[in-house]
Amino acid sequence: MADDKKKNTPVPEEDEADYITLEFDDGQQEECEILGVFDCDGKEYMALLPDNGSGDVYLYRYREINDEGEFEINDIEDDAEFERVADEFDRLAID
Questions:
Q1: CA-CA distance, 1 to 60, in Å (whole number)?
Q2: Residue 40, C-beta contacts closer than 8 angstroms, at least 6 positions apart
């Protein structure tokens, strides 16, 4: 999976697609569109759409680092937490 922590630039304004590049443990990189940041159980998460045509969505824990909009994302390692986050993303995507 992806490295545990990634630091990136500001989250995009509405109506403006923004991309980040993930680097995986094996050194491969993947460009992803930031779909958005959302709340689940009082924590924030980021949804990413990889630019590989698979239709998969990657979900990560999200945390702002500073007032300039820099952030980090972390893997969701707990299966139960991941299921709750995936269910919340599905609910939001359908609405």
A1: 11
A2: 84, 85, 88, 89
State the average pLDDT for the chain: 86
CA distance 40 to 32: 21
Task: Name every residue whose Cβ is closer than 8 Å to that of residue 85 and which is 6 or more positions away in sequence.
Answer: 40, 45, 59, 76
7 vs 24, more confident: 24
Residues 33/46, Cβ–Cβ less than 8 Å: no
pLDDT at residue 14, as a whole number: 54
pLDDT value of position 13: 52
Backbone angles phi, psi at 2, to 5 degrees: -75, 160
For residues 35 and 40, give the distance between their C-alpha atoms in angstroms, rounded to a whole number.
16
CA 71 to the chain's CA centroid: 11
pLDDT at 27 exceeding the cut of 50: yes
